[in-house]
């Protein structure tokens, strides 16, 4: 199945768009491919990619999941914020830049605009075990303008 380019369904642009392409998408789960070398902006002095970047890969897969749903409905990608994770398990300290990895985001709970949780995994192609995993919590907004509304306290001198 052909999917739209990630740049059209994820509210990121290179060099911060770290995923390569969508491999699979259903109503509840999306899987994307990535090349760690494309995340070289974050590489250490030896060219290795820090393990904590797997959380961003997972968050971008969540964004792709939502963006693909929006694309099917003819709406633009909704912005979101990564709030945190529970039960996260990350690999050692870093990833080598070579090769390809697969990241999946499976909807766990949430509805519409607001808080959602996704069970995410990162694995090597052809491997059944995960390299990293976690339950990621995100907050989905209708638009970027919603981030600047009264709830943010912006422009309100009484907000503390």
In short:
This protein has 160 residues and is mainly beta.
Q: What characteristics describe this protein?
A:
160 residues, Thiol Ester Dehydrase, Chain A, six-stranded antiparallel sheet, 8 strands, disordered C terminus
Q: What does this protein structure show overall?
A:
The chain is mostly beta strands and 160 residues long. It has one domain: Thiol Ester Dehydrase, Chain A (Roll), CATH 3.10.129.10. It is built from one helix and eight strands. Strand 7 and strand 8 form a beta hairpin. The radius of gyration is 16 Å and the shape is globular.
**What's the helix-strand series?**
EEEHEEEEE
Number of strands: 8
Share of helix, binned: 10-25%
Q: Using only CA atoms, what is the Rg?
A: 16 Å
Structural class: mainly beta
Topology:
Elements: E1 21-25, E2 29-34, E3 49-50, H1 53-73, E4 80-89, E5 94-95, E6 101-110, E7 114-123, E8 132-140
